[in-house]
Amino acid sequence: MAQTAASPHSLATASGLLLGTTGACMALGTLIGWALGATALGLLGGAVVGIPAAVAVVYRVYTRAKP
Question: Does the predicted model carry a pTM greater than 0.85?
Answer without folding.
Answer: no
